[in-house]
Specification:
The chain has 246 residues and is an alpha/beta fold. It is built from nine helices and eleven strands. The protein has an eight-stranded mixed sheet with strand order 3-4-6-7-8-9-10-11. It has a three-stranded antiparallel sheet with strand order 2-1-5. α2 crosses α3. The two termini are 29 Å apart.
Length: 246
């Protein structure tokens, strides 16, 4: 049986939950979230460091707290995950992380166990290409290429071949985490370099508290208006705070 490595809300409890989508073009839509464990990047400001910043990790995170791998992840059969998803009775599914596309064989098995009646979204950092086997199951790609302020080297955060392919995929939306107005200049350079449609670019303020988000939104909203790009907030932070399983 194909297995998946999942993040946890508490030790031994997989982070599979029903909530409102907080970000992107699907914001506000009730969805079932499946948070996978493991990531190929190490963003300084990552709001889910418990999915990758384990005690043996050589990277860096502004919170400095490392996490025990055994307490913060667990392995389940794809069929077990499918059963938990189906129990919510919601057809909109979001695979997130971490970086979920690192586990595409397991996601294929999970989608096959679920059957065809689900709308599948992926939240990815856009460094990993879709495999043909999994790509056929995906309805929407919520991609978040990382900027310089993430702290990742260019060679890790930008996969040119993958981004050029995603730019031509009508399922793909490109959400950029913005910490300062200057970050928008970097987005414009990447959009030109990879041929990203302005209609599919979203800017989101970086922050893990409502106060941080409101402060950055004051200048980010007008910036989006001037650039002709979409603005996306972080609805779940306003509703629930920076907590797991929300």
């Amino acid at each position: 049986m194909t297995k998946l490595r999942l993040a946890t809300t508490h030790p031994g409890e997989p982070e599979i939950f029903h909530s409102l989508q907080g970000e992107g073009v699907s914001a506000g839509r009730p969805s079932v979230f499946v948070r996978l464990s493991g990531c190929n990047l190490a963003c300084h400001w990552c709001d889910t460091p418990y999915t990758w910043f384990f005690t043996d990790h050589a990277g860096d995170h502004r919170g400095r707290q490392t996490f025990d791998r055994r307490d913060n992840s667990l392995t389940l059969d794809a069929a077990q995950v499918a059963q938990q998803i189906a129990a919510f009775g919601c057809r909109y599914i979001v695979f997130t992380g971490g970086e979920p596309l690192l586990q595409q064989p397991g996601l294929v098995a999970l989608c096959e166990a679920l059957g065809p009646d689900y709308h599948i979204e992926i939240e990815s950092n856009a460094t990993v290409a879709l495999t043909p086997a999994f790509g056929g199951h995906v309805d929407q790609l919520n991609l978040s290429p990382k900027l310089v302020h993430s702290g990742n080297p260019d060679s890790a955060r930008l996969n040119e071949a993958a981004l050029l392919t995603y730019a031509q995929d009508q399922r793909a939306w490109f959400k950029f985490v913005i910490a300062s107005p200057q970050d928008a200049d970097e987005v414009a350079i990447l959009a030109q370099r990879f041929g990203l449609s302005g209609e599919r670019i979203l800017l989101m303020p970086e922050g893990t508290s409502p106060a941080e988000l409101r402060e950055r939104s004051r200048w980010l909203g007008p910036l989006c208006l001037a650039k002709g790009w979409r603005f996306t907030d972080r609805l779940h932070i306003h509703l629930y705070g920076d907590t797991r399983g929300t």
